[in-house]
Specification:
The protein has nine helices and four strands, in the order H-H-H-H-H-H-H-E-H-E-E-E-H. The protein is of the alpha+beta class and 212 residues long. It has a four-stranded mixed β-sheet, with helices on both faces. The protein is globular and about 60 Å long.
């Protein structure tokens, strides 16, 4: 635990744009994991101290948007022959065009030096999750076999809001997966409910395979 704390403190120091001795870390409102989680937590602490949370979130998402829409850039970042210095230079060039803040520039600097530019997407996603918790948003992901009509969507939102605590707001993300056949799969925070037709069929098939 102490080693992890020291590691995060060093990350925060590397991300900070102030020359002054850094204060204690600002703890993220939710626990996150993995390499992307460590960078996102350090980024949250550094951005909190400089009151740049919204700016950093916007810039990270913009950077990831550029990467997602540029196949050549994706290939370059994955190419083991391209040096980490070259990869870092290209991504820093993107940030320069976007007039990104020093905090996000420092993040890419650190990721580039540590050969971790491949986790930019993970850092952006995790940072957005942290920011949602910071704003009191409860992220809910609903997957259905087909698009929901307005009436069904309204009923779903009303039902999900019943699980919210005071001060929380619902952030509903929907997607379509025809493989579900019917019904829906709901993820709310750490809760998972599978009400899909495909799941019911799989359970029935498993029962039928059992010996009599």
């Amino acid at each position: 635990m102490m080693a992890m704390s020291n590691s995060l403190s060093l990350l925060v120091r590397g991300l900070s744009t102030s020359a002054a001795r850094p204060a204690a870390m600002v703890k993220a409102p939710i626990q996150v994991f993995g390499v992307a989680g460590r960078y996102a937590s350090a980024l949250y602490s550094a951005a909190s101290k400089e009151k740049k949370l919204d700016t950093v979130e916007k810039e990270l998402n913009a950077l990831q948007g550029v990467i997602d829409s540029n196949v050549k850039l994706q290939d370059l970042l994955k190419n083991p022959i391209v040096t980490r210095a070259e990869k870092k230079s290209v991504v820093l060039g993107v940030l320069k065009e976007q007039k990104a803040s020093p905090i996000v520039t420092n993040l890419v600097d650190l990721l580039g030096d540590n050969n971790r530019l491949g986790v930019v997407g993970g850092v952006a996603k995790t940072f957005s999750d942290i920011m949602s918790a910071h704003r009191g948003e409860v992220i809910c992901e609903v997957t259905t076999a087909k698009d929901l009509d307005k009436a069904t969507m309204k009923s779903l939102e009303d039902a999900l809001k019943m699980f919210l605590k005071k001060g929380e707001t619902l952030k509903l993300n929907t997607k379509v997966d025809p493989a579900l056949i019917g019904g829906m799969v709901v993820n709310v925070g750490d809760r998972f409910v599978d009400m899909s037709t495909a799941s019911k069929i799989n359970r029935m098939a498993a029962l039928l395979r059992q010996p009599l």
